[in-house]
Amino acid sequence: MSDIHPDTAVPSIETQNGSTIRNNASAAADAIKNHPITQSVTNGPVADNIKDQHAKTSAEFSNLAASRQTPSTPAATGQPLTHYHSFFGSLLSWKNPRASGIAYATVVLFIFAARYLDIIRYAFKLSYMILGITVLAEGVGKALFSTGLASQIRPKKYYTVSKETLNALIGDVHELLNFFIIEAQQIIYAENLFFSSAAFLGAYLSYYLIKVVPFWGLSLISTSILFLAPLIYKTNQELIDHHVANATKVINQQTEQVKALAGQHAARATETTKGFVSDYSAKAQEYIGNARGRSVSPTLSSKPAPEVKKENAPSAYKAEDFPEAPKEEFKSAPPVGETASALKTEEEPLIST
């Protein structure tokens, strides 16, 4: 009789081949891992230094993420600021130098990639390469081993975005938009004079540089200034503060001198103006007094009136110089009718014969 029982499962050739391949791969990986060269690399000083730097970098990124706190100092209008004000303040001030350096390098690489690489075209290329590999692996696996290779690495559960994650993402985007909006208004309304002056200088220079520098070059210059200017100030803070203090002192002295000179000139101008005003006021009052004197009726003069010569003047008037008064009574006038009839009877013809 045969030793094979009907209930005993006989492994197939495909299963045995798959197990052999996996065992050989794991044995090779263990051999490489336990090799002296690998051990010297993974456990040597270079590996220790790499692990130490990795730990420090991770700690700085954690500190940078923890700095996303709403600042205690509100804006000039009393509105609370966003937590991105603290985040970008910590990032650009190089409080975490490794995190700031990696962020700066990432932005620079992105600018160069956008300039020299056709990102959209390479994205399509990467997509068709990944899809081709997965389709080929799945087809070859099913043809040779009756099991697709892509299905072997398929996760037990597909990744999904939870509602909490989406809400948190939307909240971060909202805070980021408010950060840029508030920061732009603070610069426009000169809440911080230094930042507003720097923004004015940057906009003024960009207006002329955009004519000769391409957009990606201008973006690179702006990013470098934004990241490296605080670093230069931080590393040379004492020297820069000393020169700034001296410059401020000189400017204040010159300002005081200008104020003193302006005050002296203003006082002289005020005195001169007062003198002119008083002179013109006196002249105006004199003119007004003269005009009033001419408009009033003339008064009696104290000078004696000129004497009239009496040589040709008559000494007295006589009665003969006047006509005699009538002595008869006035007669009444005849009626108008009688006068008219008398005139008709006495009328002569117009043509004499």
From TrEMBL:
Keywords: Endoplasmic reticulum, Membrane, Transmembrane, Transmembrane helix. It is a multi-pass membrane protein. It comes from Phialocephala subalpina. GO terms for cellular component: endoplasmic reticulum membrane. This is Reticulon-like protein. It holds the Pfam family Reticulon. Residues 306-331 have a biased composition (Basic and acidic residues). Residues 1-20, 293-353 are annotated as: Disordered. The lineage of its organism: Eukaryota, Fungi, Dikarya, Ascomycota, Pezizomycotina. Residues 88-285 form the Reticulon domain. The chain crosses the membrane at residues 101-120, 126-145, 187-209, 215-233. It is found in: Endoplasmic reticulum membrane. The keyword Endoplasmic reticulum applies. It comes from the Eukaryota. The keyword Membrane applies.
